[in-house]
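Thread: Modeling a multi-component assembly for a lab meeting

Hi all, long-time lurker, first post. My supervisor asked me to bring a structural picture of a complex we are working on to next week's group meeting, and I have zero experience with this. I have the sequence lines for every component (564 residues in total). Could someone generate the structure of the whole assembly? Inputs are pasted exactly as I received them:
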Amino acid sequence: MIELISRLRAALRRRVAERCGHPEDTFGPYQHKFGRWLDTGPEAREDDELAEVREAVARYLAVAAGEGRRWGTTLGVIVGGLGALVSFVTIRALS
Amino acid sequence: MSDPDSRSLTIELEGSPRRARLTVAPPVSGQPKAVEFAVVPDHGGPAGQLVRIDAEVIFTTASNERDGWRDWHVKIYRCANGEEASALREHLHRQAAALQRVNSYLPAPQRRQAIEPPWAVVPVQVVRGDGQLEEMANVVTTRLGVPLDQIVARLRQHLPAWLGDRARPEEILFAVSPQIDPLRWEDTNPHPATEHLEPFLTLAAGLDHLHSHGWAHCDIKPDNVCRCTYAGRTDYVLIDTDAATRAEPPPQTLRTSQLYEYRGLRQLRLRPGHEPSAGLFYAQDRFGFLTVVLSALAGREWVDRVLLAPDPEDRYGGRIVDSGERVDQALAALWPDERWRPLRELLAEPFGTGPRGQIALEHPDPWAADWLNRVREAEARCVDPVRSAARRGTPAPWLVTDAEVERVRAAAQAHPAGRNQRVRLAYSAVARGAQAAAASQFRLAAWRWGAGLTGSAVLVALGAFVIGR
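Re: Modeling a multi-component assembly
Sure thing. I ran the full set together rather than chain by chain. Output:
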């Protein structure tokens, strides 16, 4: 079971890397704006350029989070379905 | 004469209010490198006549035990005799003074001492091997109101054994300079790495000052540009000033790296017989500056392999970099997206022969800062219409919290890196953050669905059991 979970995690890591792509390909086109966003602090006043980069970073992370959520849902439904079946049958049999 | 303790060589640098004491480490490689200088004779001579001095140089480092910069770079010159050492010392002194003058003209509101950053060129102090005082009086003058510095460099002790038994103090000179961080160059950048443009501003301004005083660095290339992070800012700074020379009157000999040689000087070298003009020396510096900026933006390996390679279409043996049109084509092949066109045009323009090409490069008027500003303006015009849809105050997508986005920025800011390194750190942090977000959502969804379905089934079965009884 532990082996299966670690394989699943490795597969998820590969999938996330493939789905999101290399960060340089995503953020390179933002040119100096990306470096500017990194230099400013969260308390700094945000102009259009900084908002553009922040949103791009959030989008990049959201794609990965969405992928994790999809895989987690699939695994949860399978394991939960099996658990539900076993629990239901066990309780029925005991009763 | 020789000191048996090889670690005891110390140098003192005094300049109010700071006082540095450098402990010179023995060199890692004892093999000296032969260098040649063309210098004005020690006691004058016919105008324009230069004396050739052959010297050996050993490179090593030193650490500062007191105030100021911690790590230092040390060059140890050994001349054939005391007279040559004296002439070389005068020469290095003039170089150091001219280059330090450039730094003193750079705007620096927080500078307490004239030899503090910001620098366009890393400052060099000359130290005599015979232990006598070396004063750089009237050198560090500034129009910014910084008081005149008296920098006194003094050799504290006799020469160590690792300089060799034949070393005579009067034949030895030291040139010490603060050690700054090397730049990490990318091989090829699929997108223009324009985050490098800002740290070049100080260097560009300094280059213009240097030329306005009739001097040229003559060896600007990627190897001779380092990064200086100081008081929260990062500048790219020129190092290795051995080849620096007065451009007016133009010298008859030039020490430069052939790979980064300006076409005008290369033609002179290949077809001797003509006198070089001062403009060629300014152009050499500007050409070197262009190759450095392009190495930062497009990748160093790409510049060496593509731009500095022979042009197969040029039957006179020219290189791609000798033609603005060919440079533009090469840049278009590297960054084919049409949005980069304004930037590509500005980067290729100085390699041409027009008024903003060869004519501007060889003219004594300042050029570098203006060109760099125009490049930055061109970069601002490279707008991607798809991406410009972002609006201020847009919330993060619901699966990601603002804190997760901030973690990326915090991870990149956690290291004392320049902006280019910070961008690389941020790429790693984004990739790590993406994996962490995916793993976290994976666990959350798996537990929710797994526990939810199982729990629901247990409740239904128990309910049925209770109702059945």
